[in-house]
Every structure is written in C-alpha cells, then in structure tokens.
Amino acid sequence: MNSPTSSQALANSQTVGRIWPDQGVARAPYWIYSDTDIYLKEQRQIFQGANWHYLGLEAEVPEPGNY
Q1: Is 17 left (phi over 0), alpha (psi -120 to 50) or beta?
Q2: Distance of alpha carbon 58 from alpha carbon 22, whole angstroms
Q3: Residues 6+ away with beta carbon under 8 Å from 37
Q4: Which residues of 10-35 are buried (b: 16+ CB within 10 A; e: fewer)?
Q5: Number of H helices, E strands in the chain
Q6: Long-range contacts of 32-37 (CB under 8 A, 24+ apart)
C-alpha cells in the first residue's frame, strides 16, 4: 500500500523533535496541525516531490484563478 506505516509516522515525528502517541492510537496529536516544520515538510513532499499528484481536471475549474 501507499499509506505510511506507523514506523514511518514515528520517524517523521522524531524528525521534528516530537513524540508520537503509543502504537495503536488512532487520533493524531494536536501539534501535527500547527507545527511549522511538519507543514514545510509536507509542502516539499507534495509539491516538489518526485511524483505527480492528481488534483482534478482542467474542465472542473470554471475560470482562471478559481480554486
């Protein structure tokens, strides 16, 4: 599968100096949503990564500049 494993999530959390909750915890900790380092890392991985990420069809955008 393409989804990250818990060991990858743990490695990512340690990269930014945070500790992920115990194994098997389904809720993401609140700091995930406000940490600047995680945000910047996600931006690099999504928008500057080695792979294309399909966002939608050009026909689905009614006018230039619409999102």
Answers
A1: left
A2: 42
A3: 15, 16
A4: eebbeeeeeebeeeeeeeeeeebeeb
A5: 2, 0
A6: none
Domain range summary for the chain, segments of one domain joined by +: 6-60
> Model pTM?
0.46
Summarised one tens digit per residue, pLDDT across range 5-58 is 555 555 555 555 777 777 777 788 888 889 999 899 999 988 888 888 788 898
Rounded distance, CA 31 to CA 36, Å? 10
pLDDT at 1: 46
